[in-house]
Amino acid sequence: MSVVRPPGRIEARKPIVPKEFRRVCGLFATGVTVITAGPEGQAEGTTVNSFTSVSLDPSLVLFCLHKQSRMQAVIGRHKTFAVNFLAGSQQELARSFATRRPDGFQGVPHHFAPDGPPLLSEALAHLTCSTVAVHAGGDHDIVVGEVLELAAPGDSQDPLIFFDGTLGPLESLDGRFGQAGPGSLTTAPVRAG
Predict the structure, then answer these.
(1) Contacts of 166 (CB under 8 A, 6+ apart)
(2) Fewest beta carbons within 10 Å, which of 15, 52, 139, 162?
């Protein structure tokens, strides 16, 4: 796809201030994940909200990871990772994995997938993925993974949402989002991409 610009003079624009860019993008509500990788005794995890599905066939997902993240080396070394979708009750876990965890996964209910990465046992869902590409994206890398296994053991829980710099559970007047009562405008399933 190419971008067509109108003919004529291009006016100089003010540079985008990173802090303002972050603030404005924070107004886009997202789910919250913890990306995990590495075998028992060497496992690491980090909180990420820049996750999305990319393709249904093959099943591809992506997330963005800061170039200075401790997870860069772990994912590069092991080539598999897990995406754990957090539940609304897991705010403290999200905050904990957003900082370096000196005690690793101690005290965090988890188990290991057959291919190695740890899975958070109380998460809404998880995907085990194999890294298929890493693309440079400014101060982040865009990590693309092919889904090898998936499960949704906690799918009856509400998700954890990140909005305007805060974490919280998704709340709705009629119960779970997407299951609103009669008169709801949502009548067709939402499709990815």
Answers:
(1) none
(2) 15
3-state secondary structure of 102: coil
pLDDT digits (tens, 9 = 90+) for 119-130: 999 999 999 999
Residue type, 168: G
- Which is nearest to 82 in space by CA: 44, 136, 137, 109? 44
Q: For residues 25-48, give the mean pLDDT.
A: 90
Nearest CA-CA partner of 33 in 74, 80, 69, 86: 86
**Tokens standing for residue 26:** 């924070």
Is pLDDT above 70 for 67?
A: yes
- Sorted by sequence, the CB contacts under 8 Å of residue 169 that are 6+ apart come out as 87, 88, 89, 91, 158, 159, 160, 161
